[in-house]
């Protein structure tokens, strides 16, 4: 599979896992979702929020690449997050709606990327203002890996809350070859 194909697979997996985890988390209720469980971002709500905020930050950076801005134009109305622990939504239903919208955007956008796009170098600044200059395709790997890392924390928190998470492996999304 090509690099663009692998990234499309990761975008699909990202959306699928988010759908699963939001569906499993919703029945816990707002109070349980906001309960501090000792995770990096405290609660399930805080961890879901962090993933969303980090995605918005990276996508806004990616929108600065030649050719990507028009494909990510729908992001223009979203404000730049000011902190990685920001809570951009008032409640879990709003967070889930924003996540669904963003995941659809990611899937659609990744499907338009070319090998030439992936070889572009992105110049950006991190949240502390430190400049970075990295290959865009490699940054996309980081983008998807970051989501997976924090979803792993969410699955642990859900398991500790007595929720059966089920299969979370990328393998489930890789098509069988006949």
Name of the top-level CATH class: Mainly Alpha
Q: State the fourth-level CATH superfamily.
A: dinb family like domain
Beta-strand proportion: 5-15%
- What's the number of helices? 7
Uncertain parts:
none
Radius of gyration: 16 Å
- Helicity range: 55-70%
- Average pLDDT for all residues: 95
Q: Spell the H/E element sequence.
A: HHHHHHEEH
Largest sheet: spatial strand order: 1-2
Oligomerization: single chain
The end-to-end distance, rounded to whole angstroms, is 15 Å
What is the name of the CATH architecture?
Answer: Up-down Bundle
Structural class: mainly alpha
Number-wise, the strands total 2
Shape: globular
Integer count of domains:
1
Largest sheet features: 2 strands, antiparallel
Could you please say which CATH topology applies here? Four Helix Bundle (Hemerythrin (Met), subunit A)
SSE inventory with pairings:
Layout: H1 3-25, H2 30-34, H3 44-62, H4 68-71, H5 92-110, H6 115-118, E1 121-125, E2 131-135, H7 136-160
Antiparallel strand pairs: 1-2
Helix pairs in contact: 1-5, 1-7, 3-5, 3-7
Q: What do you see in this structure?
A:
This protein has helices at 3-25, 30-34, 44-62, 68-71, 92-110, 115-118, 136-160; strands at residues 121-125, 131-135. The protein is globular and about 45 Å long. 24% of the residues are buried. The mean pLDDT is 95. The protein is built from 7 helices and 2 strands. With 178 residues, it is mainly α.
